[in-house]
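tool=predict chain=A
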Amino acid sequence: MLDFDNSQISEEDKKAFAEIDHFDELKAEQGYDTVWSIETGIKPLDHAIFTNKPRLVKYKVIKEMGATFDDVTYQTFECMAENGTIGGLWRAAESCFKQAKLELGDWHYFIENFEVQEDGSLSLVTGS
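tool=predict ok
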């Protein structure tokens, strides 16, 4: 076990660690593989990020790499988020991740953003 003086940790870092711990607990409760990595503060699953309506979440991943960066084949996985809450969006992102993992072996399990598209759908941004 490491022994260090945690009084040296900034208040900002303490808040960040508390938020990570909060979402780790929610991840375990939900039985998810994905990690909520969007800075929202310590909020419950019913906290709204977007307006309260269903939103299509799309997750575009690389299916095959060609000889150059311009020669790439993509595949898109989709799931309807029941609403714009953290819980609704996370559930949809989890579904998209699991679809991609099953078909392509995806390993990008950090949910980093949802980008609003012109058609109103959300593009899931992940990281590893």
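The chain has a mean pLDDT of 92. The beta strands are 35-36, 55-65, 72-81, 110-116, 122-127.
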